[in-house]
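Write out the bound-state structure for zinc ion.
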Amino acid sequence: MSSLLPPSAPPPVLAGARVLEYALVDEAVTFTGRLHLYSGNERIGRVPCLAICREFDDGQYLLVHCGEDWEALGVEAWNGPFAQVPGSVDEVKLRAESYYAGLSSKWVKLEVSPEDARAYQEAQEREFICSFCGRGPDELPSVFRGGDATICGDCVRELYRMLDEPDDAPSLQ
Ligand SMILES: [Zn+2]
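---
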């Protein structure tokens, strides 16, 4: 599957959502500045890569503003109290066009099935689940990766504690 994708294509999942279409912002596209998207206190300006994504759970559309290597810099989810939620890919494209004049013809479909995208997402998440206690990224401040295994700080501390304990455990005999 991935060998068929052009090298400029994004991964199947960005910002936790399935990529439907993507666009590379080239010189022919003009950034209008009509974008009010912030990451922390920083306003997101012109970016080289954009992707239209769809959330796995509620099917909501996202416009993900990305850097050159498809790292997500800002995510537009239109989930504010007064936001008009776009109901289709075409509606997202209209909004993107208002920020980037000339972008409409640049969109490319990413042919990844929801099943493949979900499998990719689950594999990504597994990388951050402790192989020893099974807790995931929501519960763990830090994990350490080695080969195919992941261990969390708590399990490392527990391991040290066990190694440090004097050998006074009752003998089996
Ligand atoms: Zn652990």
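---
The mean pLDDT is 89.
DSSP finds three helices and twelve strands in the chain.
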